[in-house]
Amino acid sequence: MNEQDTSGVEKRLDVIANLLTILVTQKIDGSVGSTTDRILLLRDAGLAPSGIARVIGKTTNYVSSILSQKKKAAKKKGPGA
Fold first, then answer.
1. Residue 65 and residue 56: Cα distance in Å, rounded?
2. How far apart are CA 64 and CA 42, in angstroms?
3. C-alpha pair distances (Å), 51 with each of 43, 45, 56, 64
4. What pTM was computed for the model?
5. How far apart are CA 62 and CA 35, in angstroms?
6. Please, are residues 47 and 17 in contact by the beta-carbon 8 Å criterion?
7. 3-class DSSP string for 12-61
8. d(CA 9, CA 12)
């Protein structure tokens, strides 16, 4: 296995670890959240929009649109807001 393969495996393992953390946390507090909340959680876990779309059953365009809206809203608030 070369360095590039190892890097890809590491990224996927990081995503899996982050997702497991989210699942355990949700199981403990019983929260599920809205579709937007789930999209943001999965993004924060390291999934790409296409992966998020597969998980939540929406199109990649839908997920990308939500992420874009959230990014624009965060820019309007400015740093430290």
1. 14
2. 12
3. 9, 11, 9, 11
4. 0.69
5. 11
6. no
7. HHHHHHHHHHHHHHHHHHCCCCCHHHHHHHHHHHCCCHHHHHHHHCCCHH
8. 5
Q: What is the pLDDT of residues 26-50, one digit of tens each?
A: 665 666 678 898 899 889 888 899 9
The residue type of 8 is: G
Task: Give Cα 64 distance to the centre of its chain.
Answer: 11
Q: How many alpha carbons fall within 13 Å on the CB side of residue 73?
A: 6
The encoded tokens of residue 6 equal: 């190892």
Give the tokens for residue 16. Answer: 């899996």
Query: What residue ranges do the domains of the chain occupy?
Result: 3-70
Distance CA 49, CA 35 (A): 13
23-32, 44-53, 54-63, 72-81 — which is least confidently predicted? 23-32
**Phi/psi at 31 (nearest 5 deg)?**
-85, 145
